[in-house]
What does this fold into?
Amino acid sequence: MQETVIEAGRSEKYYWQDLWRFKELLFILALRDITVKYKQTFVGVAWAIFRPVLTVAVFVFAFDKVAKIENKSDIPLQIIIFTGVIFWNFFATSFQQVSNSITGNANLVSKVYFPRLLMPLSSVAVPLLDFIVGFIVMVPFLMYKGYPPTLNIIFVPFFLVLSFFAAFSLGVIFASLNVQFRDFQQLVPLIVQYGFFVCPIAYPIATIQELSWYPIYQWINPLAGIIEGFRWCLIPNYQYFQWDTIIPSIIFITITTTLSVIFFRKRENSFVDYI
Amino acid sequence: MAVIEAENISKKYIIDHIKGNAKGNTLREIITDNLKNLFTKKEDDEVSHEDFWALKGVSFKIEQGDRVGIIGSNGAGKSTLLKILSRITEPTEGKISIKGRVASLLEVGTGFHPELSGRENIFLNGAILGMKRQEIKQHFDAIVDFAGVEKFLDTPVKRYSSGMYVRLGFAISAHLEPEIMVVDEVLAVGDAEFQRKCLGKMKDASTSGRTILFVSHNLTAVQGLCNKAMFMQKGQLIEMGETNHVLATYLSHVQKTALESWWLTPEEAPGNDKVRLKSIKLIPEYLHNQKHIDVRTPFKVQIEVWNMMDNVNLNLSLHLNSLTGECIFNIGTESKPFEKGIIHAECEIPADFLNDGSYSISFMVVKDTSNAIYNFEEALIFEIEDYREGTSWYGKWPGYVRPKINFPIAQLELESIS
It folds into this structure.
């Protein structure tokens, strides 16, 4: 028979074990988010195709046709934007979902026990599904444009995991602060909006690579390296990515993830008192 | 075999009392306060912290198959204890060992998502309560049957009537098969028929060897369901033992309450930052040199409340309950606009209306005739003594009311019946 001991500070020791025990709930919560997202829609999951395609179309129109951004790379801007937007959508929606995961599940926090980390973890399901669908649309598009992906494509999961941790670590901090101070909820859309322009999503990195502050930029923006890595996986002969530029990103993300989980764990027990 | 063993459980909350200029703990206030402190010397405008012990040194043992009712007035620590047992919060001190799976039902339909269908919610809610997918599948038909929602399985629960919603929620929890069940006044919702069904289900569960912890204000339910009871007061366990014995202790404790309670300042009075109870009094109009209120005595219930809101429409809604928790009547004042200040209300209870027994008065302050701002539960407890004339029968007079209603009887015709 299962024996539980409840004691101050006890849950600390068994936290990760508990997290594993509750894995089934993780899937159920993820499934709930996905089902709810496409409930009462006519085309359902097809929205995951329309949304990125429409976004890309608008950006191509705005940046390529109207603003006529100077393209210093040898790759058509459409391809730069498509790959960038698919990646960015994953990062941005993951970050948004994770930040809202605790306050959005307030009814659960105050009524049942389970490791609270399940909520931010499960909330990534929706962006992940959207990413996979978008990715499936993107590959034929690349082939049609004359850029059939090479074997490098097997590294996509690696960069996906990196961007997951980037979004997760930032989101988890916002999620725990959000419980007490809803101010942080207001910041999230702003960060997503500014981030889109700060990162090389709608313009090639080649445009800024020659600028004098680029080496600093590379260090303080861990996402830039990941985006370039992602493009390297998909675009044949992509020459703007070097593996050593990903090292700062890995270090950065490892540190922030560790810190954010520690931060979350510290505040987790008081969620129920503030929510 | 003891399935739950609690040693010296305490739970501390820290309450901020704010003096001087410091305002509170929203982000803006924290930032401005800290900025101010940078430039000014630290003064007495600090936030002072007070420890509040919601539970203090509670120890008990519960044997397998026990059905334990937890009783006590509001703020006694019952809910805190349940929250600790269901691991929603941790105790500050002490240790509890539990043998077996615990399912806690602190509300009906925890985690129901309005957009999802009944079917999907059964799986979601089951998983949240700790059921394995396989178990849910196994009980699926029984759950649907118990709730009576076959026709609406694929309808989103947002279109359910509130009755269907509650029934489905309870049906899922009723088919949990944990060794230990922790139940918080789930029975407070639903109609009488449903409550009877719930009680029945809980009785079934206990006969199959399950341990049940049951918090309730409804003493009748506790008496009917539980073989043991715990009486808690101000965070401490006063008595634990055989139900009837503990109920007697509880009743004798609450009956000591005087006919009035009042507070000098709003800070110490019960309530929240919008309304606080200033005083509640029971003013009897004694006839014939009485010293106690009996069934013949008319009395007034006088309530005074501090209102901290400007320009609001308020009314009071008063519940008169029997001591076993059943509502005898509910009456509301008219809704009127009020400014900050003291609100005074008086309710007249006529003579020859209530039966003898113990009663409690709870009342709510209601805004715009629909939003309850605060519910002052068991604000006053009083007793009405028996008085009867013209009868030589002295058993307990049944019923909650004993109205003097015309009930003439007469001889109609003289007839010889043979």
